[in-house]
């Protein structure tokens, strides 16, 4: 083995492994970009608890089947026991992200809530640049700050029909909380040795244990086939597949360099929402433009 090859192997980075990680991160972004659109349509016919029950319940069933089928196989990485700390990171980071995100979708203008909730890569990029020993740069800090200014613009914009309603403010705060939870999970998951399926399963099972009883206790019907199908899709796609792919990518040594790929999520999801007829005010368009520009800048800076 050459000196370069030995160094690559020692660091846990291989060209093939890196390509798989990039594809996993990109796949997660693609399914996440459909999340707000699917959730928005589902929430028009179903309650928040019903949509969360469908999402968490579907994801739990899929992940439990995957865990059972793969039980006899040892994962090449992340195959340790599920500790209390790992379970806490997963529940707060994943179940918390989704619950707050969908609360935002249900109470605030969808485009703005989506952009704020998916601003978590800004937090990750800023942390990677400022934390001791991180492989960041001053350019990353500047881009993160400017991009977050775009988030603030989305936060303060108002739809003409909102008036003095406090619900949008609650939604914006929930979206920001969702972004913080997801950023924290992204930063911590690479430090965990637990099996990836176990991390996801404990989060979805916890979410289902709360959402399903709440949904069943409500006096609300389940007679909206399209909405129900979309709720199931959010469990299969954005939840199970999206987080599985992202957790795999963030478990690689190159996680800090791959995290900026997530900047494409607010761009793609915003385009999807606007194409579907959702509105975005002038201030919101400026804010979204700043986020997109910073996304391109961070991706170029990190290459």
Topology summary:
Layout: H1 3-11, H2 15-32, H3 35-45, H4 48-69, H5 84-107, H6 110-117, H7 120-130, H8 138-156, H9 167-189, H10 196-217, H11 225-250, H12 255-258, H13 264-275, H14 282-302
Helix pairs in contact: 2-11, 3-11, 4-10, 4-11, 5-6, 5-9, 5-10, 6-8, 6-9, 6-13, 7-8, 7-9, 8-14, 10-11, 13-14
User: How many E strands?
Assistant: 0
Mean pLDDT: 81
Count of individual domains: 1
The tally of helices reads 14
The general outline is: globular
Evaluate the radius of gyration: 19 Å
Distance between the termini: 27 Å
Order of SSEs: HHHHHHHHHHHHHH
The low-confidence parts are 1-12, 74-78
Find the structural class using helix and strand composition: mainly alpha
Specify the biggest β-sheet. Answer: none
Q: Helicity, in percent? A: over 70%
Strand content: under 5%
Question: In words, what does this structure look like?
Answer:
With 303 residues, this protein is mainly α. It has one domain (18-302). The protein is built from 14 helices and no strands. It has helices at 3-11, 15-32, 35-45, 48-69, 84-107, 110-117, 120-130, 138-156, 167-189, 196-217, 225-250, 255-258, 264-275, 282-302.
């Amino acid at each position: 083995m050459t000196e370069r090859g030995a160094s690559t192997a020692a660091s846990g980075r291989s060209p093939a492994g890196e390509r798989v990680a990039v594809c996993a991160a990109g796949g997660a972004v693609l399914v996440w970009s459909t999340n707000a659109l699917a959730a928005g349509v589902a929430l028009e016919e179903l309650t928040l608890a019903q949509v969360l029950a469908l999402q968490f319940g579907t994801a739990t069933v899929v992940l439990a089947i995957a865990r059972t089928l793969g039980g006899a196989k040892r994962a090449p990485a992340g195959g340790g026991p599920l500790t209390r700390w790992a379970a806490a990171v997963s529940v707060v980071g994943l179940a918390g992200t989704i619950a707050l995100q969908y609360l935002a979708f249900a109470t605030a203008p969808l485009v703005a809530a989506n952009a704020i909730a998916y601003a978590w890569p800004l937090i990750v990029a800023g942390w990677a640049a400022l934390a001791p020993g991180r492989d960041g740069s001053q350019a990353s800090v500047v881009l993160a700050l400017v991009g977050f200014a775009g988030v603030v613009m989305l936060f303060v914009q108002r739809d003409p029909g909102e008036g003095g309603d406090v619900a949008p403010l609650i939604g914006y705060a929930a979206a920001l909380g969702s972004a913080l939870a997801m950023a924290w999970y992204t930063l911590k998951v690479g430090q965990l040795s637990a099996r990836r399926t176990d991390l996801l399963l404990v989060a979805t099972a916890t979410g289902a244990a709360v959402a399903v009883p709440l949904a069943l206790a409500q006096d609300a019907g389940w007679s909206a086939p399209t909405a129900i199908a979309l709720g199931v899709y959010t469990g299969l796609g954005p939840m199970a597949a999206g987080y599985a792919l992202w957790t795999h990518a963030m478990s690689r040594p190159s996680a800090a360099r791959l995290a900026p790929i997530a900047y494409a999520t607010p761009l793609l999801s915003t385009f999807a929402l606007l194409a579907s007829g959702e509105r975005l005010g002038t201030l919101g368009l400026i804010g979204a433009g700043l986020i997109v520009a910073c996304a391109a800048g961070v991706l170029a800076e990190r290459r």
